[in-house]
Specification:
Among the domains are: 314 residues, Alpha-Beta Barrel (TIM Barrel), CATH 3.20.20; 75 residues, Sandwich (Immunoglobulin-like), CATH 2.60.40.1180. Helices cover 28% and strands 17% of the residues. Strands 1-2-3-8-10-11-12-13 form an eight-stranded parallel β-barrel. A five-stranded antiparallel beta sheet has the order 14-15-16-21-18.
Length: 558
């Protein structure tokens, strides 16, 4: 595998609206991010992905972009953005922005002009079809946020347009080469400003199954999940190759794809040496237990399910390229609340989960607050939710016969708003995030769980993550932990997740994923303890005696 400038780095996602508010309006902003650059350097991250800061009506929290060349006044100015890029670079940090080009906002100039003249050039930038009341829709696909993927075109009751997500997010027609050229021009404009690269949103959706057609309904609404279409669609690789050649490859830019429903045989094309993207996120663990019929039918993953999914992803990719490994992001609940059993969210368990994920082969991607062990918010009321997907899933649960109380409990486990509550800097009012009223309610536990309480405290979750990052960058073990292969160890032993990283050295990562102690046979004599989430480690010549939720990272002979 060709070696790239980003392989040995640790990446960190910032959700700007919830990271740091510099002006007291309750909304995080770019100047807030600038003020925390030294914190990010202290943590050890070298790539920072910003969720969208473009102008947007915020129907989907900025993923509905009304101007690809601007900065939303809520977040600051273009001068602020340029300053962030420059000051981050001074600290060895590359800034990565979200690239949202499957769809734009219905307030984007392109869509406004399409509404003015649906048969003109900008009408061809979207999927617009003739339609009359009483006629069947072109297809019965269900949007990701619920309901049909078709909506009446404003000002034209006899025409409809396609949207895979919110109705205020019309899909862009990638079949149109003029549209593609506009997108590539915009990407290169940002890279010319010094941007380090992009996280590419929902990118597999850019290729539609044409002509549109129905699939068998999978709910009583008569609609079918849009993923059914993606499984049968061919040809997205042509678009992705062209985009990479016209943009990222020209700048040696970092790119990480939000890729779902990819075919195994396409992995070398996607993230191989000459792949479309530098990396792609591993969502295999996140998908565990999810039921397409609704969150109320989903179940939280077990330790065994998590382990098997992680090992399967590592084997599937092997040395083709790099996955970006995550336990949470802005679209998922907090990892420690999702993967650790209720009542077992101790600091030790949080460090175990973080270490097991971080040391897998691939690029470790942290989400803001993960390094503190931030948890799902408890005590949600329906009126406190902002996330459109959560509100849709609540209605799905009610239609399925759940009581309002049961529906609220179900969506509270999976709501994206759990990850979007403000960063917990300290125990002061506003959690150090704002001097005003935060746009989304704080997690009530911020008074105990915050950076100020963990920074410099031996054994804290924060200091453990700093140790993980330092170990992966170390001269002695970095080569092995970045490029070494991942070899599962004792995969059949229940609630034990253990694997070897084999390269210049052999490193064993072993975690007791349960609340009872268990022994683990060593694959070779132990040479050196590298990292331990507890104060002591009990080992003899052939066995590790692991305490509940203990993680041990050791060098062994080999």
């Amino acid at each position: 595998m060709q070696r790239k400038w980003w392989h040995g780095k640790t990446a960190y996602q910032i959700y700007p609206k919830s990271f740091c508010d510099s002006n007291g309006d309750g909304i995080g902003d770019l100047r807030g991010v600038i003020s925390k650059l030294d914190y990010l350097r202290e943590l050890g991250v070298e790539i920072v992905w910003l969720s969208p800061v473009y102008p947007s009506p915020m129907a989907d929290q900025g993923y509905d972009i009304s101007d690809y060349y601007g900065i939303d006044p809520r977040f600051g100015t273009m001068d602020d953005m340029d300053e962030l890029i420059a000051k981050a670079r001074e600290r060895g940090i590359s800034i990565v922005m979200d690239l949202v080009v499957n769809h734009c906002s219905d307030e984007h100039e392109w869509f406004r002009r399409a509404c003015e003249d649906p048969d003109g050039p900008y009408g061809q930038f979207f999927y617009i079809r003739d339609w009359h009341e009483g006629e069947p829709l072109p297809c019965n696909w269900r949007s990701y946020f619920g309901g049909p993927c078709w909506e009446t075109l404003p000002g034209h009751p006899d025409k409809i347009y396609f949207h895979a997500f919110h109705k205020k997010q019309p899909d862009l027609n990638w079949e149109n080469p003029k549209l593609r050229r506009e997108i590539y021009k915009m990407i290169n404009w940002w890279l010319d400003r010094g941007l380090g690269g992009f996280r590419i949103d929902a990118i597999i959706n850019i290729k539609k199954l044409l002509p549109f057609r129905d699939f068998p309904a999978d709910r009583d609404d008569g609609l079918c999940a849009i993923q059914r279409m993606l499984a049968e669609t061919e040809g997205v690789n042509v678009f992705l190759r062209e985009m990479a050649d016209e943009t990222f490859c020209l700048y040696d830019a970092f790119s990480v794809g939000e890729v779902f429903n990819e075919k195994t045989e396409d992995l070398p094309l996607i993230i191989g040496d000459d792949g479309y993207f530098s990396s792609m996120f591993d969502f295999s663990e996140h998908l565990l237990g999810l039921d397409r019929r609704g969150w109320h039918l989903s179940h939280l993953p077990t330790a065994e399910e998590y382990k098997q999914a992680a090992f399967a992803a590592q084997a599937r990719v092997a040395d083709i390229g790099f996955l970006s490994n995550i336990i949470e992001n802005h679209d998922e609940p907090r990892g420690v609340s999702h993967y650790l059993p209720q009542g077992e969210r101790s600091d030790a368990a949080k460090k175990l989960l973080g270490g097991l994920n971080f040391l897998l082969r691939g690029l470790p991607f942290l989400y803001q607050g993960q390094e503190l062990g931030m948890e799902n918010r408890t005590g949600w009321t329906l009126g406190e939710f902002d996330d459109v997907n959560t509100l849709d899933q609540y209605e799905v649960a009610l239609r399925a016969g759940l009581t309002p109380e049961q529906a609220l409990r179900a969506v509270s486990l999976y709501s994206r708003d759990n990850a979007r509550t403000p960063f917990q800097w300290d125990a002061s009012p506003g959690a150090g995030f704002t001097t005003g009223t935060p746009w989304l309610p704080l997690n009530p536990n911020y008074r105990e769980l915050n950076l100020a309480a963990q920074r410099g405290r031996e054994g804290s979750v924060y200091e453990f993550y700093r140790s993980l990052i330092a170990l992966r960058k170390s001269g002695e073990y970095g080569e092995t932990l970045v490029y070494g292969e991942t070899v599962p160890w004792l995969a059949e032993q229940r609630n034990l997740m253990a694997y070897l990283r084999r390269g210049e050295r052999t490193v064993l990562v072993a975690g007791n994923f349960q609340g009872e102690p268990q022994d683990m046979r060593l694959p070779a004599p132990l040479r050196k303890l590298l990292l331990n989430n507890l104060e002591t480690l009990d080992a003899d010549g052939e066995t590790l005696h692991l305490a509940p939720w203990q993680l041990a990272v050791v060098e062994v002979e080999g």
